[in-house]
Amino acid sequence: MVVAALVLACLFAWYRRAPTGARIRAMVGNPVLAEAVGIRTRELARNTFITGTALAGVAGVMAAPLTPVEPFMGLTFIVNSFFALVVGGMGTVSGLFAGATIIGGLQSVLSAAVSPTSAYIAMLFVSILFLWQRPRGLFPRP
Hints:
The protein is mainly alpha-helical. It has 7 helices and no strands.
């Protein structure tokens, strides 16, 4: 957990303070304008994807000793990440934290109190409610 928190803190600081982070934010906000001011958006998007893939690899290496390694082991993480994205909203770090806290807390409490299946059903129900009532999530991108 300490390594994950450290990697997340470093990534957040880099995204907020480094010139590359500013270029990424510009590209996400308005790709045409970013291209017009000289940002090579195709190269930047490729490098951002490579960085995200490398971080996913680090997460897999960190998770491998804790869980059995099998071909579809990431499916549960992908579904939970999607639920957190729906609840928190896309494009903001505060939305990421809020969605992960709500979905992770709901899953942990209900899995311990009732059953993992009930927790999964509750997460699905909460996600459907958010898609219906707040389709942009709790903290949508401005």
